[in-house]
Write a structure and sequence with these properties.
Blueprint (H helix, E strand, L loop, with lengths): L8 E3 L2 H6 L9 H11 L5 E3 L6 H6 L4 H5 L6 H10 L1 H8 L7 E5 L6 E5 L6 E2 L3 H12 L6 H11 L14
Parallel strand pairs: 1-2
Antiparallel strand pairs: 3-4, 4-5
Helix pairs in contact: 7-8
Length: 170
Amino acid sequence: MLEGRKFQIFADQKPIIYAFKQNPDKCSPRQLRHLDFISQYSTDIRNVRVSKNVVADSLSRIELNSITKSALLNFSELAKAQQNDPETVKVQQDKSSSLQLALKPCLSTNSDLICDISTASSRPLVPESFRRLILEQLHNISHPGIAATAKLISSRYRVSNKGLPDFKIK
């Protein structure tokens, strides 16, 4: 449909407009591949303000249905799983642990979560049955890689050190 036809690409990103005019040595190999792919169709890229580019604006918005279709973390189920998880019970009973554990009320549900309060923010202990769900939810936001995903998870949740390396991210 596009082959052999001249057309313009309207973008709300100013840097891409000048990308074809800059020195290729300044680009990363990934950027060069992307520019090569785009240039196979057209190099006539024009800037349009976001408010005037209705198509790009509507495509960039997340639909409510796409949010609700994914499995959301159910904090009342997490609280129940914490009570039944042998590793969580073992950590609670270990007095030599550096973790400072406390029951924190979850505002969205009427349940209390076992949280580590040794850092600036309270981080719920994650039982083994919830590790995959939390990993997938945080990883699938932007697919940052295992190191960045592990850092993201550890900033929000308390997962045992042996919990993350077992995962293979899809």
